[in-house]
Specification:
75% helix; rod-shaped
Length: 57
């Protein structure tokens, strides 16, 4: 029975790591960085659209 449990559990994906712990503070900082980067990309995309309009004129 114990062998079957090990085989079944090895096939299920792990959604966490035993070796790595992320603090809530670190997680929040990474989320803020990600949000900031998304905003920068969005701003850059808008600037490119404006630039392309001015080129067409």
């Amino acid at each position: 029975m114990e062998v079957k449990k090990k085989i079944i559990s090895s096939n299920t994906p792990d959604f966490f790591s035993q070796e790595m712990i992320i603090t809530k503070k670190s997680l929040n900082e990474n989320q803020l960085k990600f949000t900031y980067q998304k905003q920068l990309i969005s701003d850059l995309d808008n600037k490119h659209k404006e630039w392309s309009k001015s080129i067409d004129n």
